[in-house]
Amino acid sequence: MRLDKLLSEVGLCSRTECKKAAKAGRITVDGVAVKSADMHIDPEKNVITYLGQPVEYKKFTYIMLNKPEGYISATDDKKDHTVLELLDERTQKLGLFPCGRLDKNTLGLLILTNDGELCHRLLSPKHHVSKVYYFRAERLITDEDKERLESGVNLDGEMTKPAKLMLYEDRMSGQLTLTEGKFHQVKRMLEAVCNKITYLERVEFAGIPLDTDLKRGEWRELSTDEEAHLRSFLN
Ligand code: URA
Fold first, then answer.
1. Which atom of ligand 1 is nearest to the CA of 131?
2. Which atom belonging to ligand 1 lies closest to the Cα atom of 181?
3. Ligand 1: centre distance to CA 25 (Å)
């Protein structure tokens, strides 16, 4: 891979900046200052420094974001703030995108990555990856509603797949586990039983719980274990 491509992919500099830094002797490969930024390197083998700092290369990045209200799950938008804007400048350059969507007023766990294959796998209806939502509803949820929500409701002609509903004591809030991701699914499911969502937060995705140390709008990279867990869906 070209050195300038690597340095721009890890978000350290643009290709032009990289060219200038090479000319100024500010990039080293295996301890030797390089003259040209278009040389080919092997990021797994060569040791690279940029402005005296070692360059850590990761093919893919996986981020856990605690999404606040008011942001849309997109990479750019003319009207609204996007979840990408919550990341720092360097991380924004990594080509990340949200793996799935949360509505503008839905909070909680959103994974951002630049691993298209894994994201596709996690979202594919074939693979039944689970998502857990904490919700509050406008009215009481009866035993009959629970039974319908769990066994499947009709959303514009399509039945929802079996779901798990854990109701809290007040019977107006709980956790709903889905293995699919239809458009506005939780809100529409509650509407199908003549109720309405007043608060919605995703608390788990693909078996990874939302890190409760993350405040709204905060994010961190997935841990090695979390990353390995997600990548195991590719097997
Ligand atoms: N279901 C919804 O209705 N909204 C979301 O954001 C996620 C699931």
1. 8
2. 8
3. 51
CATH topology match: 3-54 vs 130-205: no
Instruction: Decide: 64 in ligand 1 pocket, CB within 6 A.
Output: no
Give the pLDDT confidence of 131-170 residue by residue, as tens digits. Answer: 999 999 999 999 999 999 999 999 999 999 999 999 999 9
Q: What is the pTM of this model?
A: 0.90
> Which fold, 62-124+208-234?
Alpha-Beta Plaits (3.30.70)
| pLDDT computed for residue 57 by the predictor | 87
* Separation CA 36–CA 116 (nearest Å): 31
For ligand 1, atom 7, which residue shows the shortest CA distance? 102
CA–centroid distance, 68 to ligand 1, in Å, is 14
Q: Is ligand 1 within 6 A of the CB of residue 178?
A: no
* Ligand 1 site, residue 106, Cβ cutoff 6 A: yes
Q: Does the structural domain 3-54 have CATH classification 3.10.580.10?
A: no
Q: Are 86 and 217 within 8 A, CB to CB?
A: yes
pLDDT at site 105? 98
Of 200, 210, 202, the closest CA to residue 136 belongs to 200
**Which residue numbers in the chain have pLDDT < 70?**
none
Q: Report the alpha-carbon distance of residue 5 to residue 94 in Å, rounded.
A: 12
Domain boundaries, the chain: 3-54, 62-124+208-234, 130-205
Average model confidence (pLDDT) for the chain? 96
* CATH number for region 130-205: 3.30.70.1560
Phi, psi angle pair for 4, to nearest 5°: -65, -30
Taking alpha carbons only, the member of 173, 83, 97 closest to residue 137 is: 173
